[in-house]
Amino acid sequence: MLIDKFMPEYDVTEQHAILIDAPVSTVYAALRTTDFGRPFLVKAMLALRALPSALFHPKSPGKSNRHKKITFDTFLQNGFAVLSEEPEREIVLGLVGRFWTSTGCLEETDAARFTTEYRPGLSKSAWNFAFEHSGRTTVVTTETRVECTDQSSRRKFRSYWFFVRPFSGLLRQYMLKEMKRESEV
Predict the structure, then answer these.
(1) Cα 48 to Cα 53: distance, rounded to the nearest angstrom
(2) Residue 157 is inside which H or E element, if any?
(3) Distances (CA, A) of 72 to 54, 75, 157, 167, 171
(4) Which DSSP letter does residue 107 get?
(5) What is the distance between the terminal CA atoms of the chain, rounded to a whole angstrom?
(6) Distance from C-alpha of 130 to C-alpha of 153, rounded to nearest angstrom
(7) Is the pTM of this model over 0.70?
(8) Residue of 41, 80, 103, 147 with fewest CB within 10 Å of its CB?
(9) Tens digit of each residue's pLDDT (9 = 90 or more) over 2-50
(10) pLDDT-wise least confident of 7-21, 48-62, 165-179
């Protein structure tokens, strides 16, 4: 899997899968177009995580994102970078920062920087979507892996992860269900 190239070793992982009754081409397209924020709970969880950053670093005061769609591109516009992609097979996103802080202290990254970044005090997250198909049925698996660059960041991240993990898993399950809903119409 492509994710192994970017993060063969990690401190934590979370994996979810769903069976979708649609061809892989339809499901893969749905990854890029689905509004993952349709369920209120997803929009609320993402808004809660973004609140400290919005308070400390307001981009456009007075504008509401309440009705804005949350798509794959939304993640790319908020710190994630595509590390690698094999269309209709797998796509891997990367994120680097201090996730346990109120704003996440995200850093710009790309495939080259992601694989070589090991400064102390950081965490790196690799997040993939993998697609296996058989005729009209597609299994979509998503996995999130996090690696911390030193013992101190590992300790801080694990405390953060203790509280965030259930919501992170729920978010990914909702995302998969929305892709299924979008693909099976």
Answers:
(1) 10
(2) helix 151-183
(3) 20, 6, 25, 18, 13
(4) B
(5) 29
(6) 29
(7) yes
(8) 41
(9) 999 999 999 999 999 999 999 999 999 999 999 988 766 666 666 655 5
(10) 48-62
Q: Minimal CA–CA distance to 119: which of 103, 111, 104, 107? A: 107
**Identity (one letter) of the amino acid at 109?**
T
Tell me the two tokens of residue 116.
């070589």
The rounded distance, in Å, linking the Cα atoms of 99 and 156 is 9
CB atoms inside a 10 Å sphere around CB 15: 13
Token pair in block for residue 169: 């898993």
Beta bridge partners of 124: 96, 147
What are the structure tokens assigned to 54, written together? 């919005």
- For residue 135 the two structure tokens come to 């005729």
Tell me the residue ranges of DSSP E strands in the chain: 12-20, 81-86, 90-97, 123-134, 137-148
The domain spans of the chain are: 2-54+102-183
